[in-house]
Amino acid sequence: MGRKQFKAESKRLLDLMVNSIYTHREIFLRELISNASDAIDKIYYKTLTDDSLTFDKDDYFIKINIDKENRLLKISDTGIGMTKEELDDNLGVIAKSGSLAFKKENELKDGHDIIGQFGVGFYSAFMVADEVTVMSKAFGSDEAYKWESNGIEGYTIEPCQKETIGTDIILKIKENTEDEKFDDYLEEYRLQSIIKKYSDFIRYPIKMDVTERKLKEGSEEEYEEYIEEKTVNSMVPIWKKNKNELMKEDYDKFYEEKHYGFDKPIRHIHIKVDGAVSYNSILFIPEKMPYDFYTKEYEKGLELYANGVLIMNKCSELLPDYFGFVKGIVDSEDLSLNISREMLQHDRQLKLIAKNIKNKIKNELSNLLKNERDQYEAFYESFGRQLKYGIYSDFGSNKDALQDLVMFYSSKEKKMVTLDEYVSRMPEEQKYIYYASGESNERIEKLPQTELVSDKGYEILYFTDDVDEFAIRMIMVYKDKEFRSVSSSDLGIEMEENESESNLNEEENKELFEHMKNILSDKVKDVRASKRLKKHPVCLSNDGEFSIEMEKILNSMPN
Ligand code: ADP
Ligand code: MG
User: Which atom of ligand 1 approaches the CA of 166 most closely?
Assistant: First the structure.
């Protein structure tokens, strides 16, 4: 087979990655180890679900080999391997166009490594290597293949010799430059510390031949060196560790390792439950919205493990849609390995876990709102809409869980306020919770309809999201107070005789009103003298069930 070119986009991304200065080149090792671990997960899962296969724990490991003389670093795994086609498919295309555009836009903004987020983890190898060789033998195959590339001129695939199932990744480490000491990546201690830092919780042993020293026999001061194979990682997954052993940085690192996002999570929730159903979980509330959050591509869900074995990457049953932004993992001993997607939906254990998780997230958000207002507002800016959709969907069945978490801009406070804050400030005689809908706060401020309510000194909530009014209609009553749009014809405000400056008498001007009504016949139902206006000559009001803004939205919806 001849040399193949990378797909055009892959090439551009490769250039971008290799040539941009990454502060953390060392993460290449994390990426390759995580691929190796994924590959072992896959074969492990096969042996557990197929009775004809047996499993011996000792057969599954990752091994790191250093060949200083030839500047080679080898990462081997006993995972599922790749066929010729898989080598071509998986290593020949780097990223999808959307993510490339995204990366370009974002790479300068913050220093985070977002490489792996787009399935480009493997290519990070080219940050430290001039040449990458992949030798692989797939599970169930007799043939092995070698994939080779120098990153620029494409790649070749040809048959090769390999005895065991699995994959060897061989990196030809770059020569030192003025800025970067690539030699480091051939040093035992350096590699060990990188593994400890990023891959400690990988569940399979990461082995390495390590040079040790011991006193020479019969000598008190003379040492001799010997080589010993050591397992470098502690192998305890982070979610099984005790909370008090862990720092915020550990969770942040895990979030990054898992490519949950390129931001830093604003909160993590570490759950250990022993009870009717036992499980461990780590959940994250992200800071920023993923770039594809509102696209069809976005898939909510948590990673699901059954007693340490990954059974699903995105288990959507574990999260309600309105918490679809939450990332994380769940590991439970009470789930069956053979569980299928269809069965999961009806699984009692899983339902219990999901309910529990939902409450934990809700409580965490309540605490955030109570104790770290700024952070909550930043969160709300990203995901508030999601919560409001949550109230609206399922016929309002979630409103109790969510109504204390929503916020709206207040005419009086000039900032976001909760419904509770609004109600607690209401003067005795104020009947309703007032709101005004419009495109933006600035526009709502200018609405004539707000005049009377504001003059009374009452606070108005500004609804600028399409979903706002729909959500509020599901809540209907909050702490015994009903909601009322400022454009409603009945505002529940008592008018004193001389309060309105309007001296238009409807009876005396009957003809004028009739005339206006005729001209506007296809636009309005009636024209009346208003007592609610001060500065503005005219305004729209409505008697119907829906506010003017809501009617606009309803009319714009396809039938
Ligand atoms: P990601 O891991 O996000 O899918 P990568 O660029 O890291 O993206 O890897 C691309 C794909 O190549 C993987 O999804 C996997 O199918 C395959 N792959 C990479 N390394 C290995 C390996 N050591 N063993 C088996 N398959 C691998
Ligand atoms: Mg990967």
Answer: 24
- Helix, strand, coil: what percent of the chain each, to 5? 40, 20, 40
Burial string for 38-62 (b: 16+ CB within 10 Å, else e) reads ebbbebbbebbeeeeeeeeeeebbb
Cα distances (angstroms) measured from residue 195 to each of 38, 131, 199: 16, 22, 5
Contact 3/9 with Cβ under 8 angstroms?
Answer: no
With a 6 Å cutoff on the Cβ, whether 36 touches ligand 1 is: yes
Phi-psi region of 119 (alpha: psi -120 to 50; beta: other; left: phi over 0): left
Residues with CB under 5 A from ligand 2 (ion): 35, 121
- The pLDDT of residue 557 is 60
Q: What is the rounded CA–CA span in Å between residue 292 and residue 296?
A: 8
At 67 the pLDDT is 97
Nearest C-alpha neighbor of 73 from the set 206, 170, 205? 170
Q: Compute, in angstroms, the gap from residue 122 CA to the centroid of ligand 1.
A: 6
Q: Which residues contact 288 (CB under 8 A, 6 or more apart)?
A: 261, 262, 263, 382
Alpha carbon nearest to ligand 1 atom 8, residue:
119
Please name the residues in contact with 28: beta carbons below 8 A apart, sequence gap of 6 or more: 124, 125, 127, 128, 129
Contacts 24+ apart (CB under 8 A), 365-370: 365/285, 365/405, 366/404, 366/405, 368/266, 368/267, 368/285, 369/404, 369/405, 369/418
pLDDT in tens, 201-213: 788 999 999 998 8
Which pLDDT score, from 0 to 100, does residue 543 have? Answer: 66
pLDDT for 102: 41
Query: pTM, whole model, 2 decimals?
Result: 0.70
- Known binding residue 117? Answer is yes
Report the alpha-carbon distance of residue 7 to residue 90 in Å, rounded.
12
Distance CA 316, CA 304 (A): 10
Residue from 41, 122, 164 whose mutation best tests the ligand 1 pocket (most atoms within 8 A of CB): 122
Q: How big is the chain by its Cα radius of gyration, in Å?
A: 32
Q: Is 118 annotated as a binding residue?
A: yes
Phi-psi region of 180 (alpha: psi -120 to 50; beta: other; left: phi over 0): beta
User: Would you state the pLDDT for residue 161?
Assistant: 97
Mean pLDDT of the 67-88 span = 96
Residue of the CA atom closest to atom 12 of ligand 1: 90
Torsion, CA 438, CA 441, CA 446, CA 450, rounded to 10? 70
Q: Is the CB of 167 under 6 A from ligand 1?
A: yes
Cβ(122) – ligand 1 distance below 6 Å: yes
Q: Render pLDDT for 350-402 as a digit per residue (tens, 0 to 9).
A: 999 999 999 999 999 999 999 999 999 999 999 999 999 999 987 778 898 89
Residue 480's pLDDT is what?
94
534 or 301, which is more confident: 301
pLDDT tens, position by position, 224-279: 999 999 999 988 889 999 999 999 999 998 998 888 888 899 999 999 998 888 99
